[in-house]
Amino acid sequence: MSDLAAGARRPGADVVVTEVWRTFHKGGQQIDVLRGANLSVGAGEAVALVGQSGSGKSTFLHILAALEPPTRGEIAISGRARSGATRAELDRYRNQDVGLVFQFHHLLPDQTALDNVAMPALIGRFTLPEARERARALLVRVGLEKRLQHRPGELSGGEQQRVAMARALMMEPVLILADEPTGNLDPATASEVMGLLREVQMERGVTLIVVTHAMELAAKCDRVVRLVDGRMVEG
Ligand SMILES: Nc1ncnc2c1ncn2[C@@H]1O[C@H](COP(=O)(O)OP(=O)(O)O)[C@@H](O)[C@H]1O
Ligand SMILES: [Mg+2]
């Protein structure tokens, strides 16, 4: 393995969520999706987030990723409170500190696997040759050394999610947020992809919060947390 792809250079983030509320207004109705959610995740820990459809899991991940603000409450990443962050700090957090994996991979259809993975790095930090070399090494790590030049449409669902995983690791994130990354896969492939996600997460010491429907996949994590009535329940 190239040293560019070897372990994390940055320790995983610890994540502390305190009394987070998220309220939506729709057609004159107020919906409190999150109602004082609390969660502490240690650096390098893997937490599975489960809960019924519509319980607010995606909303919670979006807030953690700083893609939307909480209505109330505080989020601290590696001890730094979100509420005190400048716009530049939030941009850096979104671009470099967090790696996202979604159910539908959001890969660019016209780009090769290699360039899909290299893409996030082209906005900074790496030169093009460095980005390509690091992307190649990450794709090798997720078992896609023979698929570097394939476009997403030429890959299986499991392979597409491996590419998405490699892309999420590209900036050496301190936190990976994965929203039903295996939701679109058959059970055997889902188990493989979740196993691989857990392997690379442990190798790098990066913190992981992963939403999943399947309890046998959630059980691969250190801890399972359930979102019930807008709050987190352990176990
Ligand atoms: N932008 C929005 N505007 C209004 N309601 C929303 C918005 N986003 C999510 N919701 C509502 O919040 C609830 C939780 O949604 P979501 O976080 O997607 O749940 P989950 O991921 O657990 O299935 C749902 O009732 C959904 O309709
Ligand atoms: Mg969701």
Secondary structure topology:
Blueprint: E1 15-26, E2 29-41, E3 46-50, H1 57-64, E4 72-77, E5 80-81, H2 87-97, E6 98-102, H3 113-118, H4 128-141, H5 157-169, E7 175-179, H6 187-204, E8 207-211, H7 215-218, E9 223-228, E10 231-234
Parallel strand pairs: 3-8, 3-9, 6-7, 7-8
Antiparallel strand pairs: 1-2, 1-4, 4-5, 9-10
Helix pairs in contact: 4-5, 5-6
This protein binds adenosine-5'-diphosphate (ADP) and magnesium ion.
Describe the structure.
With 235 residues, the protein is an alpha/beta fold. It has a domain at 44-53 and 92-234: Rossmann fold (3-Layer(aba) Sandwich), CATH 3.40.50.300. The protein has helices at residues 57-64, 87-97, 113-118, 128-141, 157-169, 187-204, 215-218; strands at residues 15-26, 29-41, 46-50, 72-77, 80-81, 98-102, 175-179, 207-211, 223-228, 231-234. Helix 6 (187-204) links the parallel strand 7 (175-179) and strand 8. The longest helix is centred in the last third of the chain and has 18 residues, at 187-204. The protein is globular, with a radius of gyration of 17 Å. Adenosine-5'-diphosphate (ADP) binds at residues 24, 26, 31, 33, 51, 53-59.
